[in-house]
Amino acid sequence: MALQAKRYSVSTYLKFFLFSAFGVFAFFINFNLPAYQIHIGGWEWGLVKAQSNVLCSHLTNFIKAALYTGNFKAMPFVVWAIGLYAVVDLFWLRPEKAWHTTKVNAAFAIFKIIGFIVLTMIDIDIYFGAHFGFMGWLFNGVDSLNGNSIANFVMANILVTICISIPCASLFLPFLVDYGLVDFIGVFVRVIMRPVFKLPGRAAIIMVTAFLGNFSAGHIAVNDQYKTGRMTERESVCIDTSLSTVSVGFLMALATNTGLNNAELWGGKNYWNLFFWVAFLITLIVAFIGVRIPPLRGIPDNYYPGATPNPEQVIKKGIFSAAITEGLDMAQNQDNVGKRIKYYMIETMNVLGTVAAGTSFFGTFGVVLYTYTPIVRWLGYIFWPFFRIFGFKGQELTTATTGAMISFVEVTVPGLLVTTGVWSMRLRFMLAVLPVTSIIFLASFVPCCMGTEVPVKFWHLCVIWLERMILSIIITGIFAIILFPATMIA
Q1: CA distances from 257 to 42, 56, 278 (A)
Q2: What is the distance, to the nearest Å, from the Cα of residue 157 to the centroid of all Cα atoms in its chain?
Q3: Residue 113 has what pLDDT?
Q4: Burial of 366 by CB count in 10 Å (0-12 exposed, 13-18 middle, 19+ buried)?
Q5: 146 within domain boundaries
Q6: Is 346 exposed, middle or buried (0-12, 13-18, 19+ CB in 10 A)?
């Protein structure tokens, strides 16, 4: 496939190279910003610590400081308004999608309504300091959350973060996936992705986007690829459930809660880089196995109804020229960047409404179960034999099984189990890695995934999570023994 330069205009070349370069910069290139705190009259922003991060995360921190951590706490109301949109969507905008498709969708619609009611109560408490006396279980501090209330934990650690980070990721996503970069890189990695993961080469950059940006960015990108006929149903579900894991921001939260990035605990050693790359590698290993077993193996390779199939072509020679050609073709035929940003923001709003209302229910429900009942601990015993293989016993064994189970509800909670107390490095390491490599959780991942057009089944998500968790425990346990042969306690 020879490259013919005359086929493309100068603007096509500029879109391909400049937009793609900016997309890479926004998601993948870390740069330092000093600590700052902005004051505009009486408006005092929260303090943003000096850090090295990608543009998308810097923007998230900027907005969070302006609208939440300072003295102008607008984000709880913004989250509430997004949740209200989800309820309006259920009854007036797209009622057929919620009530007239499957029983699972109808059940999730009810969960969203309950979640919105809970969200309303949390906002009333935040802005007016009022709540029903019998709801102290939601608004009083609890020891398991380091004295924080469940309401504040869900709002600050989950809802505010995702309601800022998802739109920020979507703002930059068109530059990364719409102007040829995905197609260009896909040509090179499809020779690996097809035989190893049974997926198109495009899956590789979407995975990295989700890992460095947000799982929601992966879901939205996959949704677009599926709706435009560039991925099949099986490929879309596999990427959503096996490669679109939580972002670096979540990894940092897990590393902080488990103490892996606290050099003072480990004689000056910081385990952040080790944790990051091992979690990334184990995610790939588990995906390699997961796509070859049910239920992922049995999902049909159907295309989106009405879409013209546009699968990746097999290329055996002239790979670089073919990659350039595919990238330029995509840039040439794509709408202008303003339209694409508008498209992604509309898609994001539909997903975000589902996430805000759904997370309010699942996040709160899961943390309540963990805090006030033994149910999570009991369910966690299904993982007892797998942790026992690696020498865990006593309180560490109970904490390990509980952490594995609670990760299905909310991804940051497992790390909180070892925030205080004396625990081995192996346990801390596994409770940081497992929520990342198992991928699926109810608090925001499931609502976000099911809020797209990709026809994923809820029971499939449950089975895939169980499979991935068991595989993750076994593989992570092996890594933990190799990396930490001596018992390290902190």
Answers
A1: 34, 23, 18
A2: 14
A3: 94
A4: buried
A5: yes
A6: exposed
